[in-house]
């Protein structure tokens, strides 16, 4: 296995999962702000809420939702991996294995989610 | 002959008590505890709203009313709102601290962040507490079936 150049922390699974955790986290946070505010329209009137939700029900937004769910599922499994690295006595030793287990769970979860969601979006 | 007393060359090392408290430690622990809870809450949220039944096609006012007519769903959603906003705000705070180097930039970004936190949490909490699943005078076609029995 080629050694990462530079410091122990640079490159490879450790650094890239950290970068992806930040990127997905910020993405989810900005979605959450919009999500709470558009849901708040239920307090205005049924018409107002249905009108805004209606604009989300198209293929472009449907693909956006798929991307959002992918970001959430990655952040969730990678977050659990971080907790194991922090608290499990053997976590740091096996951090690379844990990362690939998290990615395996990501793929399995998305394989369960995507077909059904895309069928809803594209009316299959 | 008396034994000479050798004084210690210097006072023993004593770690200076930090005056800044343990805020960052509690924040770090909070991210892990809230993270585990949020995985369970959000996976349930996604399953119920995107996978079960008709998926996203079923989401409209009547769908939300159907959920929030029951107290347990309101409590679950309220907890999810607060935990997710605190987790997200603390995460973005960390990122601002890492990348915004000028005091002024950091200050402005944090004012924006905390304002967004307050606006979203207050709005969301008020909506969950004051929501009426069968508002008077609304078009009955847009309401949940159980409103007809009222």
Brief characterization of the structure:
The complex is a heterodimer of chains A (124) and B (150). Chain A has 124 residues and is mainly α.
Overall strand count of chain A: 0
Q: How many domains comprise the coordinates of chain B? A: 1
Question: Major β-sheet of chain A, in short?
Answer: none
Q: Indicate the proportion of strand residues of chain B.
A: under 5%
How many helices of chain A? The count is 4
Strand-and-helix sequence of chain A, N→C? Answer: HHHH
The most extensive contact between chains is:
A-B, 38 and 42 residues
Helix content estimate of chain A = over 70%
Instruction: Name the CATH homologous superfamily of chain B.
Output: Fumarate reductase/succinate dehydrogenase, transmembrane subunit
Structural class of chain B: mainly alpha
Would you give the CATH topology of chain A?
3 helical TM bundles of succinate and fumarate reductases
Describe the structure.
Chain A: It is found in: Membrane. Chain A: Belongs to the cytochrome b560 family. Chain A: Its cofactor is heme. The complex is a heterodimer of chains A (124) and B (150). Chain A is an all-alpha fold. Chain A contains 4 helices and no strands. Chain A has a single domain (14-121), classed as 3 helical TM bundles of succinate and fumarate reductases, CATH 1.20.1300.10. Chain B has one domain (23-148): Up-down Bundle (3 helical TM bundles of succinate and fumarate reductases), CATH 1.20.1300.10. In chain B, 63% of the residues lie in helices and 0% in strands. By secondary structure, chain B is mostly helical. The longest helix of chain B is centred in the first third of the chain and has 29 residues, at 23-51. In chain B, α3 runs antiparallel to α4. Chain B is elongated, with a radius of gyration of 26 Å. The chains are: A mainly alpha (124), B mainly alpha (150). At the A-B interface, α1, α2, α3 and α4 of A face α1, α2, α3 and α4 of B.
């Amino acid at each position: 296995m080629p050694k990462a150049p530079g410091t122990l922390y640079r490159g490879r699974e450790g650094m890239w999962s950290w970068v992806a955790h930040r990127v997905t986290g910020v993405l989810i946070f900005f979605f959450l702000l919009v999500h709470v505010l558009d849901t708040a329209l239920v307090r205005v009137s049924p018409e107002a809420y249905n009108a805004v939700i209606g604009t989300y029900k198209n293929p472009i937004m449907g693909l956006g939702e798929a991307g959002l769910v992918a970001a959430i599922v990655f952040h969730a499994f990678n977050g659990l991996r971080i907790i194991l690295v922090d608290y499990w006595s053997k976590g740091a030793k096996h951090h690379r294995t844990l990362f690939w287990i998290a990615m395996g769970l990501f793929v399995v979860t998305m394989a369960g989610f995507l077909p059904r969601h895309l069928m809803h979006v594209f009316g299959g | 002959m008396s034994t000479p007393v050798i004084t210690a060359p210097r006072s023993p090392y004593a770690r200076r008590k930090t005056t800044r408290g343990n805020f960052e430690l509690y924040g770090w622990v909070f991210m892990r505890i809230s993270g585990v809870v949020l995985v369970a809450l959000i996976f349930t949220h996604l399953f119920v709203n995107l996978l079960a039944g008709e998926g996203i096609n079923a989401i409209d006012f009547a769908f939300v009313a159907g959920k929030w007519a029951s107290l347990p769903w309101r409590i679950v959603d309220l907890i999810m709102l607060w935990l997710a906003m605190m987790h997200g705000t603390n995460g973005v705070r960390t990122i601002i601290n890492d990348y915004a180097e000028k005091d002024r930039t950091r200050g402005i970004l944090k004012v924006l962040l905390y304002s967004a936190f307050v606006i979203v949490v207050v709005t969301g909490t008020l909506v969950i507490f004051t929501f009426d699943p069968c508002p008077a005078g609304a078009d009955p076609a847009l309401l949940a079936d159980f409103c007809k029995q009222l």
